[in-house]
Amino acid sequence: MAEFTSDILLLLFAAAFVAGFIDSIAGGGGLIAIPALLMAGLPPLETLGTAKLQALFGSGSATLAYSRRGLVDYKIILPMAGMSAAGAVFGALVATVLPTDVLQTALPVILILIAIYFALKPNAGAVESVPRLTSFAFGATIVPIIGFYDGIFGPGTGSFFMLAFVALMGAGLLKATAHTKVLNFASNLAGFLVFMVSGAVFWKIGLLMGLGQFLGAQAGSKLAMKNGATVIRPLLVCACIAMAVKLLLDPTHPVRIMLAF
Question: Which residue stretches of the chain are H helix?
Fold first, then answer.
């Protein structure tokens, strides 16, 4: 850690806290943590690996908080977690050989559509409704696809899980948030293991940020459990829009290059 000044370490810790807070409620924490690591001077591959390590603490912390309140049905969610992890491992392996331009181009549009869905359907997730898929079908198809996305690219994974639980499983927003964190933890763990094997992890930085993630996720999950859909829906909408805008502001984004602006 000698190459990092105390100011940089403090900023990384703060970024991780904010990322953990937002991610525990609406997802999107990676778009805070990853730029912070890049600005601190970590190489791109090590940034991704270290980001996965610190994200484990955030998703694990939120999972613990929601579990203590009895909001996680482990009989249903554990098999899904296995499928999420399997998808993430495959995605992380494919990421080493497959260009991600298509995903980068489509992601802002998808995030904006998610924001519009929750903004225009104020009752979505307010109460539980009839599922459109069985737990088995959902776990065998939707979950590994989103897990694969987390492994190959990542940003917005929590938002995708949230939308899937509400729209396809009829879950209320609070329960959807709780189950999302379990599946996100599984995909984070699987992706992290792939990066760890390749030696692309800065352990000390990852553990320091992990502490920030843990504390931020505890604060965020408590706020979500106290206020339910009242805080989850607007933060989810804002997080999706903010992620889309942030991606489009990147001069190297395919849409920016294609439109030459």
Answer: 6-23, 30-39, 44-68, 74-95, 101-120, 135-152, 157-169, 173-197, 203-227, 229-249, 254-259
Q: Can you tell me the distance from the alpha carbon of 133 to that of 61, in angstroms, rounded to the nearest whole number? A: 29
Distance CA 166, CA 163 (A): 5
Query: Which pTM does this prediction carry?
Result: 0.81
d(CA 54, CA 213): 7
CA separation, residue 102 to residues 64, 107, 155, 173, 213 (Å): 35, 9, 14, 30, 30
d(CA 119, CA 237): 7
pLDDT tens digits, 128-152: 678 899 999 999 999 999 999 888 7
d(CA 138, CA 112): 23
